[in-house]
Amino acid sequence: MQAWIANEQDVRLSEVPEPTLKGGGVLVEVLAAHVPAYTNAVVRGNRGGLPVPLVLGPSCVGRVLAVAPDVFHVEPGDIVLDTALLDAGGGDEVLVGWVGLGGSGAGSARTDRMRAVWRDGVFAEKALCAKETLVKLPGAETYPDPARLAFLPWLCIAATGLHAAAPVAGRDVAVVGATGQLGGAAVLTALAEGAATVTAVGRNEEALARLAALGPRVRTHRLTGDRADDAAGIGPVDIAVDTLGATPSAAATMAAYDSLRVRGTLVLVGGVRHDLTVPYGDLMHRRLTLRGSWMSDDRTVTTVWQLVRSGALDLSVVELVTAGLDDPAAALGLAERTTGLGFVALVP
Ligand SMILES: NC(=O)c1ccc[n+]([C@@H]2O[C@H](COP(=O)([O-])OP(=O)(O)OC[C@H]3O[C@@H](n4cnc5c(N)ncnc54)[C@H](OP(=O)(O)O)[C@@H]3O)[C@@H](O)[C@H]2O)c1
């Protein structure tokens, strides 16, 4: 079969043997896989170590072809979401086929063993997935546009972040970095879950305009770079979700912190690589909560899928750009340029 193999510095289309079933494994036909906008940065090694060489790709929507004898929660013919997250407990978590380790992020002898057994990802015609990474999507067999479901993993990551500050219904939410894919996913999820208002915050004016067009509950704030001005433009809100990429400073994140109402919650979901200076007395007197959120859990996957299936979360507002396996470099470039309520789905 054909697959994208990541090496030290690049990704190449290669002919590789089809994966064979092993204990705890599920063989899936990859229907569509989201190519994250920052995949080029991942391949260049700017986001942590990849255990190269490997089949790249963190998550996909697939059809189950075969299951190992010890797999009971899915069966051939099921449509499933692969979340990539393999969790051994105690902070030892890996993303199969991708960068990122749970816990302290440093990894351990156990995560090394996990990555040795479950190494390959999903940017391929077929994938052998650890059973723990798969959640069944009942009824997805009849979803009219399966490639669009490749956006589910980002929606689920965003929803898991929002749920860390639950309840969402009836509350004012801000998404800082709303112009990115994770942020756009957070805006859509917050609207679907009944937020009173959603303030979409980012730099890209065109992306902000698209978000504003989602409906009257959406407000926008264009980041100025000045913390006080941005805080005033964002808030006051009950929940702020930070989905920013690698920014040069923590100013926008701290503006989100400043924008919180008393008893508000700031959830960190993005890729900011700076320490936050949080004033002890302020956090205490305003009774604020600071939460982190990483990847998604099975219950949230089911909730988000039901929102999509019911039409409460309408995926037709997201621009879908498809790419095949034939030219990885072109697809990664396209993914980098396709953000702001748009995403690239690899359809092998
Ligand atoms: N916690 C988790 O489980 C999890 C899971 C997946 C991803 N992530 C992280 O989430 C981050 C965002 O992912 P994504 O897919 O949404 O990426 P993306 O589509 O590339 O979006 C990046 C966002 O960051 C903003 N941004 C980038 N540089 C900026 C700067 N200098 N100043 C202000 N804003 C800046 C962009 O704003 P403009 O477009 O307006 O310029 C955009 O809103 C990634 O870094 C990733 O590491 C976390």
From TrEMBL:
Residues 182-308 form the Alcohol dehydrogenase-like C-terminal domain. SUPFAM superfamilies: GroES-like, NAD(P)-binding Rossmann-fold domains. Keywords: Metal-binding, Oxidoreductase, Zinc. Pfam families: ADH_N, ADH_zinc_N. InterPro entries: ADH-like_C, ADH-like_N, GroES-like_sf, NAD(P)-bd_dom_sf. Its cofactor is Zn(2+). Residues 24-138 form the Alcohol dehydrogenase-like N-terminal domain. Belongs to the zinc-containing alcohol dehydrogenase family. PANTHER family: NAD-DEPENDENT ALCOHOL DEHYDROGENASE (PTHR43350). This is Alcohol dehydrogenase.
